[in-house]
Amino acid sequence: GFTDHVALGSEEWNPWDADEKNELVASQQRYEANLKMIKYARSHLEQTSLRVQIWGKAAIGLYLWQHIFGGHLEPADVTAQWREGSQKAGKTYFSFLTGPSVVPGYFSVEAEHVVLVLNGREPAKVAYATQWLHYAQTLMETRKIQHVAVVLLGNEQCNNAWVQPYLKRNGGFVNLLFVTYDYAFVNEEDIFQWPLGVATYRSFPVVEPSWSMLHDPRSYLCNFLGTVYKNSSRETLMEILKQDGLDKLCWIAAREQWQPQETNESFKNYQDALLQSDLTLCPVGINTECYRIYEACSYGSLPVIEDVMTPGDCGNSSMYHSAPLQLLKTMGAPFIFIKNWKELPAILEKEKKLSLQEKIERRKKLLEWYQNFKAWMRQKFINTLENSFMPSDKG
Predict the structure, then answer these.
(1) Largest CA distance in the chain
(2) Residue 125: which CATH number?
(3) What is the edge-to-edge ordering of all strands in the sheet holding 83-89?
(4) Which of 362, 367, 360, 344 is nearest to 249 (CA)?
(5) Residue 14 contacts by C-beta under 8 Å, 6 or more apart in sequence?
(6) Element (H, E) at 94
(7) Fewer CB atoms < 10 Å away: N or C end of the chain?
(8) Is the domain of 270 the same as that of 157?
(9) 277 and 366 share one domain
(10) 91 & 226 share domain
């Protein structure tokens, strides 16, 4: 540092003293260099503080915000017309908006960077998602926003061709796409696989692991609560469970018709089943990946997954060759993968012989893995946005 009168160039100094003069020049230079550094640091700081607004127009947005980001929403009431939350993560300030009142043109766009969370599962949803994309495109063209990323609940057969023209690589404006299921176009450059997560549309909660969840003996070896489709592997599963009276050791509640809306009672039953079983059976549905996998993880019940590809366009990508569930496998998910439900009786025999201590260790490993998985997805999401949206420092 140096005293005020030097900085001010006050008349007190002696102009005939060369040493003193040199000292002043040197200190002026130091002062200017410091100023430059502060200015640079400031501009750099501003440059590295991204502001990102997430528009949650699909229930999968709640998995992103509440489960992966650990974010909160106000008001807490899930039926509220408008809910919002914010948090700083990495170099980025995130705000999240959701609810029926979030409609194109009727809310304030408060960031130059936007993440759109959309549902592209069926034609009616795609039509609605497209309206949002066109709104974002208009904002881009009028320079209201700079970058757009999309988190997409993809089609269960991975038929997502409609979204391709919107990607920058194809002449569109969307920088990044995070998409569920084993979409063959995942390349880890601008298209990334995203976890399906829990059924937030049924208000599946963020579950905090408790002492009893880890340490208490559980009443059932396994559970399966779900729809049994005609001529599906689920029918095979039911037959195998009945054969050796294994269904007596497991919590089985099969129904013939899928119900999108749970009753309070059926939902509580389902959560109890996860909490009371050591294993959760996950037969394939329309896609191998299902909410049940993540919901079982939340309660420390080990998923037993039927590891077969379902019909459609899902499959290996240029980056991954372990479909189905390549994202979970790449992340080292400690699940039991089987190719056929005929393997189940042997698994359950082994299960009977495990001590409580062994089960506790396994639960710890599963819950820890799931926490790490969510933390890793969050970090990856933030890094990907920052690398893509921030001006690079190459200049």
Answers:
(1) 107
(2) 3.40.50.300
(3) 83-89, 92-98, 50-56, 113-119, 147-153, 174-180, 191-194
(4) 344
(5) 20
(6) strand 92-98
(7) C
(8) no
(9) yes
(10) no
Please give the backbone phi and psi of residue 176, each rounded to the nearest 5 degrees, phi first. -135, 145
Does one domain contain both 159 and 264?
Answer: no
Q: Please, are residues 13 and 24 in contact by the beta-carbon 8 Å criterion?
A: yes
Question: How far is residue 341's CA from residue 153's CA, in Å, rounded to a whole number?
Answer: 28
- Give me the number of domains the chain comprises: 2
- CATH (domain of 304): 3.40.50
| 327: containing domain | 205-372
Strand 113-119 versus strand 147-153 pairing type: parallel
* Same domain? 171 vs 291: no
Task: Copy the structure tokens of residue 244.
Answer: 């050796």
Per the structure block, which two tokens stand in for 330? 């790449």
Secondary structure of residue 197 in the 3-state scheme: coil
Q: CA Rg, the chain, in Å?
A: 27
Which tokens go with 271? Answer: 């959560």
Residues 23-64: tens digit of each pLDDT:
677 767 777 777 677 766 665 555 557 999 999 999 999 999
Tokens of 355: 């001590």
65, 56 Cβ separation under 8 angstroms: yes
Confirm if 381 and 68 have CB atoms less than 8 A apart: yes
Find out whether 336 and 203 touch, Cβ atoms under 8 Å: no
* 315-325 pLDDT per residue, tens: 999 888 899 99
- The model's pTM is 0.86
Q: Name 74's bridge partners.
A: 84
> In this predicted model, what pLDDT tens digit does every residue of 345-382 receive, in sequence order?
999 999 999 999 999 999 999 999 999 999 999 999 99
- Residues 73 and 151 placed together within one structural domain of the fold: yes
211 is a domain residue: yes
Query: Are 171 and 308 in the same domain?
Result: no
CA dihedral of 134, 135, 138, 144, whole degrees rounded to 10: -150
